[in-house]
Amino acid sequence: MSNSLENLEQSFQDRIDRGEKIEPKDWMPDRYRKTHIRQISQHAHSEIVGMLPEGNWITRAPSLRRKVALLAKVQDEAGHGLYLYSATETLGITRDELTEQLLAGKAKYSSIFNYPTLSWADIGAIGWLVDGAAIINQVMLTRTSFGPYARAMVRICKEESFHQRQGFEIMLTLCRGTEAQKQMAQYALDRWWWPCLMMFGPPDAESTHTEQSMKWKIKLKTNDELRQQMVDQTVPQAELLGLTIPDPHLKWNESRGHYDFGEIDWDEFWRVVKGNGPCNKERLEARRKAWEEGAWVREAALAYAEKEAERTAVSAAV
Ligand code: FAQ
């Protein structure tokens, strides 16, 4: 490495260590830029693909109130995807390129959205557990070192906390309902619990990016630390609902001050990440179809923008 590059990298690291935010036009190491393009775009794709499992229930929500809340939640997720694509674009990549990476199967999105939503209780479980996990991860990211990402996270977290409460309220209503409704809630928890713990990524010992991302303060906590936080936070909530977490090894550990929990099936996690989960093909197919069917909207918007630009140029010339 040349001396000047070394100096640049050192003063960049010093800025990070002092807790300064890095802004898009600041000098940054190429790997810092690439890590952010990877992580923020995967996050954006997760929000967009994440609309699909819930979208499946909009037409079947059990009441008008539930339908309105679910519609608002799914629209928020589209908004989150858009802020995050914009934050990624500040790093010198276009939204079209990001979409192409997703549709070609080159960019990842969260494993959790490759599971099906089989009953209305799954909508409750997604809000309670998936948004619960997302908030734990994203509250940390409000303090991440890249300015546009950190700022986007502040607003996103506020909206996610409403999402989580609507999910918990669905679960609470089901758990206070008939025996069949309570069973539906339990069955949803049984299916979503382990995939939710997988959302935080592989164990620290197998995480390729954690060490460098912690150094750059992209991540302020490791995958395992956040996962533990999720377990500790959720167990009392499940108790309040009167539901059983499907883990026979779950036990309070007085000396650690945390819950111990059972082994996660990492083979399942990698299968899903590599494209072979229950709904991977269906999810990508839906995104491809939406992209193709939206072509005329993009063309029309472009044609309109060109016309407007011409009109402005003509009136400026007059
Ligand atoms: N799924 O070295 P690490 C939401 C990949 S938003 C798929 O530990 P890193 C809102 C990882 O990319 C949910 N792939 O990676 C909502 C890497 O592969 P690569 C999304 C995963 O980045 C709620 C490899 O494994 N949230 O839920 C997963 O340091 C309800 C090695 O892993 C975010 O994206 C996974 N779960 O840590 C919407 C938050 N985990 O890229 C609708 C931002 C890991 O080298 C309804 N992201 N991989 O090919 C992050 O905080 C981090 O990227 C982690 C992973 C923590 C996810």
TrEMBL record:
Gene3D superfamilies cross-referenced by the UniProt entry: 1.20.1260.10
Any one cellular-component term (Gene Ontology): cytosol
Q: Name one GO molecular function term.
A: phenylacetyl-CoA 1,2-epoxidase activity
Quote the InterPro entries the UniProt record gives: Aromatic_CoA_ox/epox, Ferritin-like, Ferritin-like_SF, PaaA, PaaA_PaaC
Q: Which SUPFAM superfamilies match?
A: Ferritin-like (SSF47240)
Q: Could you give a single Gene Ontology term from the biological process aspect? A: phenylacetate catabolic process
The protein's name in its UniProt record: 1,2-phenylacetyl-CoA epoxidase subunit A
